[in-house]
Design goal:
The protein is mainly α. It contains twelve helices and no strands. 59% of the residues lie in helices and 0% in strands. The chain is flat, with a radius of gyration of 31 Å.
Length: 350
């Protein structure tokens, strides 16, 4: 547990008032090469000669890479103009069988770094646009899921009665009704959180696709009770089950991206008896959350990151007396040491 005490790995309580220090992304400078044995005076006669690794990229490779960069359209007009000059110089070096000059390589190196930054920004922009899409359309998808949840029990009860009647007239046993049975859920399977049912539905859809694509002339149909139930409900109200499933899967992604829940479930489970709560797991999940937040730098400001840490500690302070001791204690911490008054914490169980 020693690593949990290291500030870099374990962002602890923010009661000290110190803000987390964020380091800006600067373009790294390649380490200097030592003088070669053939030229021991190189570093003395030309101090800048060894600052860049000019022998890592040949002139031919440089021309090829710059061609791709310029043709990609990712560079600004000014940067593309500089890249064009560097490419021409590298082409002349290639024709003479020479390595690129230090000046050419220095400019090439900067251009490559700029292009990488542009690519990162483009990726981030795409991610933000997708997140915006999820936030805007998510509530509409939630409305579809709520419709299925409300109709799940009445529609399935009616369907079972009709199905049993049909099978009775046909002399069947009704055993095929098990196709929609979900053990332990009854007729409330879709009322589970979307983060629970979404992955299950996605797995069932993948099984259905594999079943349809198989070369086996008589493949065994996979057991897909969630999809079966949704199909029955969709048919009863004339909805397109494929669109509904797509909406639910999108809503699941939205919830997974938007919700980063604290370990309240661990506390509520034994809220009336804090001595039974797994405080080690509670502590570990708080630490894990802080580590995830730390990955957001430098996109998050110092103030935002410090506030995020403080909010986690404030949440934790609802349940424990001494937050600092809670973080610093070894993994053999006593479970009854930190729990507050059972009556107070027990109110959170409802």
């Amino acid at each position: 547990m020693e690593d949990l005490k290291q500030k870099s790995d374990h962002p602890g309580p923010s009661s000290t008032g110190k803000k987390p220090k964020l380091v800006a992304n600067a373009f790294p400078i390649p380490p200097a090469e030592p003088p070669s044995e053939a030229d021991p005076e190189a570093s003395r006669t030309s101090p800048r000669k060894t600052q860049l690794k000019i022998d890592t990229t040949t002139a031919v490779e440089m021309v090829k890479n710059l061609d791709e960069l310029i043709n990609s359209g990712a560079l600004s007009a000014n940067t593309e103009s500089i890249a064009d000059v560097v490419r021409e110089e590298a082409r002349q070096n290639a024709e003479r069988g020479e390595m690129p000059s230090e000046s050419s390589y220095s400019q090439y190196y900067i251009i490559k770094k700029l292009q990488a930054r542009i690519a990162d920004n483009t990726k981030l922009g795409t991610e933000l646009a997708h997140l915006e899409y999820l936030l805007h359309v998510g509530d509409w998808s939630s409305g579809i899921l709520q419709t299925y949840r409300k109709l799940e029990r009445p529609v399935l009860v009616t369907w079972r009665k009709g199905r049993k009647s049909d099978l009775s007239e046909q002399g069947g046993s009704g055993s095929d009704l098990s196709a929609i049975e979900i053990p332990g859920q009854g007729d409330k399977a879709l009322k589970q959180e979307s983060e629970v049912i979404g992955p299950v539905i996605a797995k069932e859809m993948e099984a259905i696709r594999a079943w349809k694509d198989t070369d086996n002339p008589k493949p065994k149909k996979p057991h897909t009770p969630y999809v079966e139930q949704m199909t029955i409900i969709a048919e009863s109200i004339k909805m397109d089950v494929k669109v509904s499933i797509e909406a639910i899967l999108m809503y699941t992604e939205r919830c997974e991206r938007a919700h980063h829940k604290p370990p309240t479930d661990l506390v509520r489970k034994d809220a009336a008896s804090p001595e039974r709560i797994d405080w080690v797991e509670v502590r570990d999940r708080c630490v894990a959350a802080k580590k995830e937040f730390a990955k957001m730098e430098p996109r998050w400001s110092d103030d935002d990151l410090a506030t995020a840490y403080t909010i986690i500690d404030e949440w934790l302070g609802v349940f424990v007396e001494d937050v600092s001791a809670f973080y610093d204690d070894e993994k053999t911490l006593k479970r009854t040491k930190y729990g507050k008054d059972p009556g107070l914490v027990g109110l959170l169980k409802s």
